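Good morning,

Attaching, inline, the backbone tokens for the sequence recovery test we're adding to the shared suite. The designed sequence is right after.
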């Protein structure tokens, strides 16, 4: 069952709490909790943040363009791992509730090559990457996948701090339509 998309860490945290509460209710009723896939649209986060940076217009803001999506993905993956290790999700897992997984969507307005760059930076254990057919073809041509991506929290945190300096908080990003993320 798909959930999201989520754009920021706070949306993700709310969604994970909602999913855990739903799982607990279903367990209490002996219902089956279907596996959930949480979507994070990497290029859409870039588009959202880039629009705000363009309004700022400074050279500092321009230097940050097209980097928020990947920084957010790395921070979100770290939060995802922590959430699944929490006592709450550990207890649910022990009761047979399948852990949510992450789906990185990478359809970029900048074309298939950029989608491949997003994908190659988000190959983390327990996650799935969605590519457009053209990006999948490009991904195959590159044939450079060697295994999981190294999580770069140092760079992601640096990027989050630089964006915060511009008044953009990655953790507070939300869907452009400002509605809460769909939980299924």
């Amino acid at each position: 069952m798909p959930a999201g998309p989520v754009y920021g860490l706070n949306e993700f945290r709310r969604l994970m709490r909602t999913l855990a509460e739903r799982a607990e209710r279903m367990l209490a009723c002996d219902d089956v909790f279907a596996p959930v896939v949480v979507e994070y649209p990497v290029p859409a986060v870039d588009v959202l943040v880039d629009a705000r940076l363009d309004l700022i217009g400074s050279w500092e803001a321009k230097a940050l363009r097209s980097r928020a999506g990947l920084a957010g993905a790395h921070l979100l993956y770290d939060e995802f791992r922590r959430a699944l290790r929490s006592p709450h999700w550990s207890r649910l897992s022990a009761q047979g509730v399948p852990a949510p997984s992450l789906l990185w969507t990478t359809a970029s307005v900048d074309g298939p090559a950029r989608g491949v760059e997003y994908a190659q930076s988000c190959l983390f254990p327990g996650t799935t990457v969605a590519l457009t057919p053209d990006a999948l073809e490009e991904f195959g041509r590159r044939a450079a996948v060697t295994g999981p991506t190294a999580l770069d929290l140092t760079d992601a945190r640096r990027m989050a701090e630089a964006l915060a300096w511009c008044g953009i908080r990655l953790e507070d990003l939300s869907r452009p339509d400002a509605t809460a993320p769909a939980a299924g």
